[in-house]
Automatic annotation (TrEMBL):
Name listed for the protein in its UniProt record: Uncharacterized NAD(P)/FAD-binding protein YdhS
Organism superkingdom: Bacteria
Listed transmembrane segments: none
InterPro entries named in the record: FAD/NAD-bd_sf, HpyO/CreE_NAD-binding, L-asp_N-monooxygenase_NS-form
A Pfam match: NAD_binding_9
Family annotation (SUPFAM superfamilies): FAD/NAD(P)-binding domain
Domain FAD-dependent urate hydroxylase HpyO/Asp monooxygenase CreE-like FAD/NAD(P)-binding, residue spans: 7-156
Cited Gene3D superfamilies: FAD/NAD(P)-binding domain
């Protein structure tokens, strides 16, 4: 029987887990899996390649199993290290990377008959090579032939926010908040401004203050909203049906938002916590997203997403306490407003901000500015050679709300003519375009498992 080659480009969370599921689902030797990874070891994608235990998962261990069909899998891994860990613990992202590496290693050992190969290189182009097969070109000049390809490329660095100025070309500006070597250039105690106030900004805040408890950090965001904390003993999410309070509503962002707020208020009167309402809503986000028209999605993205994000993307309680202490002491300061201009003089940057609530112009003097406004989902602005080639040759296309890559229900790429590619698949945060809620482990693990079934 001929061997089928499945190439997975990107061996972070999604790529590694796709390989794990292929191994689990292919007991006989009919598949060769090739993992192509440009940066690190399989399992150590952007989120989990940190070696610093200060960075905690923002989801309790009980909801971080990599395997959708084995919810206790991660908790068991943690308890092997320290029996005191439990489902409510917030574990470090470093340990989660260890867990993903181990999960892959164990599966490889269990299925020695399936060949799995890791290639340390960047994929820069994909072409049809006849008979429904593809050729993948690598940066080093080599190429790989594959029958099926899974793109698991992860996040792309943020776009520089408006106003785009010459300042962005200076070394005082760091566009990629995940570039550790760039952050290491920020030495000493000099003040720093972070653009954005989400979980990425808080990562950078903790990183820049871990070696200096006097360095001043300004967190500048349009609305000045801060991610909310998890509870110290978070309840396990309970799977319930589609929320009754959203049934029979017109499918508009405004109607759904109003109903959600009322339900949270009613729940509070009963002594309940808003987090339980958000948790119960989360699995139904794809269905709600499906009901919204492109216009309603834009309305949500323009007016409501910032409020949704701070309730949905929560912080580990200890991280929230750390942030609160820094805000109280004045080491960190939140400024709601938008940046109008940057002026550089003598190694300093003066950031000119129009304050949201007063309209006053305020200037803060810093040594560096770091862009923490979130990943870029706009394919037209991504400079990765692979994305540029796939887009310009029509292998993939952007969704109407510029949230990611268009796929059908089988995760097959939709090409520029609107046709599904038979053997070209995507899994990762750009599934947001189709499902909205698809960027974190609890959702991605379900998509990965479903995709692996399709690949077999
Ligand atoms: C900082 C951070 C913290 C997070 N914390 C949590 C959390 O606590 N809980 C949670 O549920 N979710 C969390 N998430 C979200 C989620 O877990 C990740 O986004 C998820 O890991 C995405 O997996 P991925 O495989 O798509 O991306 P990644 O894991 O980043 O993997 C993508 C890989 O593809 C490689 N690659 C890209 N292009 C190419 C190419 N052309 N050729 C070869 N290789 C390529 C990259 O080098 C990378 O290793 C976090 C995300 C981030 C960014």
């Amino acid at each position: 029987m001929p061997v089928k080659v499945i190439a997975i480009i990107g061996a972070g969370y999604c790529g590694t887990l796709t390989a794990v599921h292929i191994l689990r689902q292919n007991p006989v030797n009919r598949v060769r899996v090739v993992l192509v990874e440009q940066h690190s070891r399989p399992g150590r994608g952007l989120a989990y390649r940190t070696w610093d235990d200060n960075f905690l998962l923002n989801v309790p261990a009980g909801n971080m199993s990599a395997l959708a069909d084995d919810p206790e899998h991660f908790v068991r891994f943690c308890q092997n290290i320290d029996p005191a860990f439990n489902a409510a613990s917030f574990i470090s992202r470093r340990l989660y990377g260890d867990y993903l590496e181990l999960t892959l290693r164990e599966e490889i050992t269990r299925h020695r008959e399936t060949v799995i190969e890791t290639i340390h290189d960047e994929a820069i182009a994909i072409h049809h090579s006849g008979n429904d097969a593809y050729q993948i070109d690598l940066r080093n000049g080599a190429s790989i032939c594959a029958h099926q390809i899974v793109l698991a490329l992860g996040h792309f660095p943020p776009l520089p926010p408006a106003p785009v100025t010459e300042f962005y070309k200076t070394p005082a500006y760091i566009n990629n908040p995940w570039d550790s070597s760039a952050l290491e250039r920020i030495l000493g105690n000099a003040p720093v401004a972070l653009l954005g106030m989400g979980l990425t900004a808080l990562d950078v805040l903790f990183r820049l203050t871990s070696s200096s408890d006097t360095r001043k950090i300004y967190l500048i965001s349009r609305r000045g909203l801060c991610p909310q904390p998890h509870r110290f003993h978070p309840k396990a999410p309970v799977v319930v049906g589609f929320p009754h309070y959203l049934k029979n509503l017109p499918p508009t962002a405004k109607a759904y938002c109003r109903a959600l707020r009322l339900e949270i208020e009613r729940n509070a009167v009963r002594g309940g916590d808003w987090r339980d309402i958000i948790n119960a809503l989360r699995p139904h986000s794809p269905e709600i997203w499906r009901r919204f028209s492109v216009k309603e999605r834009w309305k949500f993205l323009s007016h409501l997403v910032a409020y949704w994000d701070i309730h949905r993307h929560r912080l580990a309680p200890s991280a929230h306490l750390r942030l609160s202490d820094m805000l109280k002491s004045g080491q960190a300061e939140m400024i709601a407003g938008y940046v109008r201009n940057y002026k550089t003089h003598a190694g300093q940057v003066s950031v000119e901000i129009s304050e949201r609530h007063t309209g006053r112009i305020r200037c803060v003097d810093v040594r560096h500015v770091v862009n923490c406004t979130g990943p870029n989902f706009n394919l037209a602005c991504i400079t990765s050679p692979l994305i540029v080639q796939l887009r310009s040759e029509g292998y993939l296309r952007q969704d109407a709300n510029r949230l990611g890559i268009e796929v059908n229900e089988h995760y097959q790429l939709i090409d520029c003519r609107g046709d599904a590619a038979k053997n070209l698949f995507y899994v990762g945060p750009m599934l947001k375009a189709r499902f909205w809620e698809a960027i974190a482990v609890p959702e991605l693990r379900i998509h990965i498992q479903a995709l692996a079934k399709i690949l077999k």
